[in-house]
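A further point concerns the way the authors explain their paired sequence and structure data. Showing the layout once, in full, would remove most of the difficulty. For illustration, here is how one protein appears when written out as sequence plus structure tokens:
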Amino acid sequence: MSLFVSAFFKLFMRNGSDPAKLATVLSSHAACSIIAYGQMNKVVVNEGVGGYDPDLAFDIVAISYQITMALNTVACLAGTGYVNNLPLIGLGMLAASAAVGKIGSDS
């Protein structure tokens, strides 16, 4: 999302204020919604629709809250510095994700 938000800033918010850009970054870090999990669980349990895994959906929601808190805390503490370095931060997170995926696939 950091890379997408960086592109959004370049295309649509070139002259945006720093607080508006920070608010956009914080919104982009938002956790997955528990409502989406509830809807998926309803479809699987009440209507018997297959192909969905409510346990995995709940795990994603549960993990995303901690990631959201960490990213938003760092963004708020770093402020404009975080926003101005968003492309590098996004590339760093993408590289870290690839490394974790590679390590996980080797075991």
Q: What stands out?
A: Residues 2-106 form one domain.
